[in-house]
Amino acid sequence: MIHIICGEEDFIISEKIIEISNNNFRISNFGDRDFMIDFQQKINKKLWGDNPFVVIRDFYDTAGCEPLYLLFKNYNPDVIFTLNELSNTLVKALKELKIPYKLHKIEYKFDSKATSKKLNFRRWAEEILSKYHVKLHPAAVEKLCEIFINSPAHFLTEIKKLSFYKKNQLITTEEIKALMRQPGESKTFEMVDYLKDKDFLKFFQYLKREVLLMGKPEKEILPLLGFLGSTIYRMLLVKKANEEGKIAEVDLNPYYRGKLLQGSYKFSEKELKYIYNIIAGIEKRYKKHQIKISDIPEEMPIGMSAIK
């Protein structure tokens, strides 16, 4: 089945991809020189042993797409296109080949008659709260509008989260503070927490999401890998220092040091070194152009699969 997601809100688009694919997807960049080879490998069910969706990013209309459309016809893969605007050429080709597809438009609409941006956002926010049956105190709604006025996509995601927590019942200010994430709060730290807790499934899910949401992947991927590597290295450092009775000598913030130590109890020294080498190896291969950014989320679990 072909899914076409149209919109400019990356956060909502990523949530839609996860919803459609049940978080089982691989990424392929249309602009890459070896895109067709990469795409054929990713839809190879014999190779992967399952039936993941392939997310095609950066697609654009070109006369050279016929081989891609024929792959759709012959192999019937599960594919998700992410587009800023609907491609009429793509839709026309799918119709001519009688390939079923589903269109998903990602958008939020403000009242054009509203006299100010603040009032506009407030009216839209109230519609979203009503749609998802989330009940908040008026003062809380006002405060959230101030916080999220420039981040409507983030607001929508957080309200969906609240709706899973409690519907048609008043949610207190304390509950809001505990459950909602404000704009700018990175999920990178959440991802690293899952790695420290040895929850590899959630770690891989968040890693895929972080890579998917990168605005400038070429500039962001190395700092991300560096952060992961340094976290594991510090866990190893803290673990060894604790075993030698020298934990107080480790020059780190006491709270952060304690969190690292707590996480290190779940790993053996051998496992920490193993994970560090996996991350370092991926970073080295990327710098030598032996691996693409879109493949990194798939390489990480392959390497860590030996750790239980």
What does this 3D model show about the protein?
The protein is α/β, with parallel strands linked by helices and 308 residues long. It folds into three domains: 104 residues, 3-Layer(aba) Sandwich (Rossmann fold), CATH 3.40.50; 63 residues; 117 residues, Up-down Bundle (Zinc Finger, Delta Prime, domain 3), CATH 1.20.272. The chain contains 15 helices and five strands. Strands 2-3-4-1-5 form a five-stranded parallel beta sheet, sandwiched between helices. Strand 3, helix 4 and strand 4 form a beta-alpha-beta unit. Helix 1 crosses helix 8, helix 6 crosses helix 7 and helix 12 packs across helix 13. The two termini are 34 Å apart.
A few lines on this structure:
By secondary structure, the protein is an alpha/beta fold.
List the defining traits of the structure above:
308 residues, alpha/beta, Rossmann fold, Zinc Finger, Delta Prime, domain 3, 3 domains, 5-stranded parallel beta sheet, 5 strands, 58% helix, 8% strand
Indicate the low-confidence ranges by residue numbers: none
The averaged pLDDT comes out at: 82
Euclidean distance between termini CA atoms: 34 Å
Shape: flat
Elements, N to C (H/E): EHEHHEHEHEHHHHHHHHHH
Largest pleated sheet: 5 strands, parallel
Binned, the helix content reads 55-70%
How many helical elements?
15
Strand content: 5-15%
Radius of gyration: 23 Å
- Overall number of domains: 3
CATH architecture of the largest domain: Up-down Bundle
> Can you tell me the CATH class of the largest domain?
Mainly Alpha
| Count of strand segments | 5
Strand neighbour order, sheet with most strands: 2-3-4-1-5
What is the CATH topology classification name of the largest domain?
Zinc Finger, Delta Prime, domain 3
Find the structural class using helix and strand composition. alpha/beta
